[in-house]
Amino acid sequence: MKAKELRNLTSEELLSKLDEFKSELFSLRFQLATGQLQNTARIKTVKRDIAKVKTVLVERKLNEARA
């Protein structure tokens, strides 16, 4: 998911996405540990998505603090 798309979401939707990505990452790590994961690159993608969501949330907090 692109950061531009994330900026169009509300804060509640971003927090929901963050929880979604975290649970997916947990599931992927579990699959990796049990040897069932086929696409290991998906872990990296999900980690980056989590970072993007967190970045957008921090940007919003900083903008609110300045206003």
Automatic annotation (TrEMBL):
Q: Which UniProt keywords apply?
A: Ribonucleoprotein, Ribosomal protein
Is Ribonucleoprotein one of the keywords UniProt gives this record?
yes
Annotated Pfam families: Ribosomal_L29 (PF00831)
Q: Name one GO molecular function term.
A: structural constituent of ribosome
Mind telling me which GO cellular component terms the entry cites? cytosolic large ribosomal subunit
Which domain of life does the protein's organism represent?
A: Bacteria
Stretches that traverse the bilayer: none
**So what family is this one in?**
Belongs to the universal ribosomal protein uL29 family.
Q: What is this protein called?
A: Large ribosomal subunit protein uL29
- Which organism does this record belong to? Peptostreptococcus porci
Corresponding gene? rpmC
